[in-house]
Amino acid sequence: MPNETLIRDIRLAAKELGYDDVGITKPTLPQADKDALKEWLKKNHHAGMKWMERPVRLDPKELLPGAKTAILFISYYRQEEVPFTEKKGVVASYARGRDYHNVHKRRLKQFIRWFEEKVGEEDCCRPFSDASPIMERALAVQAGLGWFGKNNLLIHRRLGTFTLLSGILTTVEVEGTKVVEERRPRCGTCTKCIDHCPTGALSPYELDSSRCLSYHLIESKEPIPQEIAAKNPGYLFGCDICQDVCPHNVRKEPTDSKDFSPENGIGALLDLNQLNEIEEDPEKLYVTPLKRRKAKGLSYNWKTLWNESAP
Ligand code: B12
Ligand code: SF4
Ligand code: SF4
C-alpha cells in the first residue's frame, strides 16, 4: 500500500475514534530531551514521584523492542472556566468528565485492532497514555503536533494546551514520518503562566513538582505543606491556572466531546455534601480521574483548602 494512503487512513481512523489530531514519528528521542529529563530529576523536581527515575523513560523502544514508529494522538478536552466559590472546590478541566485513561484505553484498543488488520500483522503494537514510562510530550513535539510552552505543556498549533496525549508504538515502519528535533523557545517575552502560578512552581520550560498544586492535590502521598496549601485559590483536584492565562487558549470553545463533558463525570465544582456522599459511596469516583485520589484524599484536599484542620 502506498505510504500516503496509510497515513491518510490513520488520520481518518483516529478522527472516527474521536481524536482531534494525530502525529507520526520515530520512537526515539533527541538527546536534548533525555538531558532535560536527567537534569530535572537531578534537581529533584519530580518530588515524591520516584517511579520517574526508571531508565526506561529515556528510550521508548524499551517498551516495545523493535518498535519503528510512534503514533501520537491528541484529545481536546477544554471545559468552561468556573469562578472560585466559597465552600466549594474546583475540579481541573481534564477531570470533570470520564477518566481519560479509560477513554484512551478504549480508543487505542479499537485503533490497534483496525491498524493490525490494515497492515496484516498481529501483536505489533503497544498502547500508552500517561501511565507508561514514555516522554509523551517530547514525542508529540517531535511528531510536529506543537511545541513546549513555558508552562511545560504541549501547545498545539490550533487547539492550544487543553489537550491530552495518548499513542501507540509499533514495529511496523510507516515511512515519511515527521521528526522535528528543534526545541526552539516559542513563548517570546510572554511570562503569564509563570507570573500567575500561585505557588511559584514554574520557571521557563521547567516545573518543580514539590511546589505545584496539581502534584499535591493529585499525586502526592505526603501532607501538603502549609505554605503551598495557603496559596491554593480554590482547587480541590488538579490545577489549570497556567493554562487559563495562556494566550494560546484565548477564544477556544469547550470541547464537544461527550467523553470529557461534566455530565458524564463528576462536574466542575464539589461541595461538602457531595464529598460526604462520595465518602459513603466511593463508586461514584470509579469512572472519573478523581479515583486516583480516593474519597479520603479528596476530603483531605478539602480540609487543606478551607483550612478546616491543619494539613
Ligand atoms: C509527571 C507528570 C506530571 C507531574 C509533573 C509535571 C511536569 N511538568 O513534568 C504533575 C503531577 C505536576 C503533573 C501535572 C499536570 N499534568 Co501531568 N504528567 C506527568 C507525566 C506522567 C510525565 C511528565 C514528564 O515526563 N515530566 C518530565 C519533564 C522533564 O518533562 P517535560 O515537562 O515534558 O519537559 C520537557 C520540556 O521542559 C523540554 N525542555 C527543557 N528545557 C527546554 C527549553 C526550551 C527552550 C524548550 C522549548 C523546551 C525545553 O524538555 C523536557 C523533556 O522533553 C505525563 C505523561 C507522560 N507519560 O508523559 C503527564 C502529562 C504531562 N500531564 C498532563 C496534564 C494534563 C497535567 C495537568 C494539566 C493536570 C492538571 N490540570 O492538574 C498538570 C499540568 C502541570 C504543568 N504545568 O505541567 C498531560 C499534558 C498534556 C499536554 N497538552 O501537555 C500529560 C502528557 C498526560 C497525558 N497523557 O495527556 N503532571
Ligand atoms: S498547575 Fe497550578 S500550581 Fe502547577 S504550575 Fe500550573 S499554575 Fe502552578
Ligand atoms: S502563558 Fe505565555 S509563556 Fe506561558 S506557555 Fe502560554 S505563551 Fe508561553
SSE string, helix = H, strand = E? HEHEEHEHEEEHEEHHEHEHH
Catalogue the ligands. cobalamin, iron/sulfur cluster
Integer tally of domains = 2
In which order are the strands of the major sheet placed?
Answer: 1-2-7-4
Structural class: alpha+beta
Q: First CA to last CA: what distance? A: 60 Å
What does this entry look like structurally?
The structure is a single chain. The protein is an alpha+beta fold and 311 residues long. The protein has 2 domains: 3-81 and 99-170, no CATH class; 192-305, no CATH class. It contains 10 helices and 11 strands. It has helices at residues 3-16, 31-42, 100-119, 136-142, 192-196, 213-219, 226-229, 241-244, 272-280, 294-305; strands at residues 21-25, 69-76, 88-91, 125-128, 146-148, 154-156, 163-170, 202-203, 206-207, 235-237, 269-271. A 4-stranded antiparallel beta sheet has the order 1-2-7-4, sandwiched between helices. A 3-stranded mixed beta sheet has the order 10-3-11. The mean pLDDT is 95. The protein binds cobalamin and iron/sulfur cluster (SF4) (2 copies). Residues 197, 199, 201-202, 207, 212-214, 239, 241-242 line the site of one iron/sulfur cluster (SF4). Residues 33, 36-37, 40, 49, 92, 94, 129-130, 134-138, 148, 151-154, 161, 163-165, 183, 185, 205-207, 209, 212, 214-215, 218-219, 238-240, 242 line the site of cobalamin.
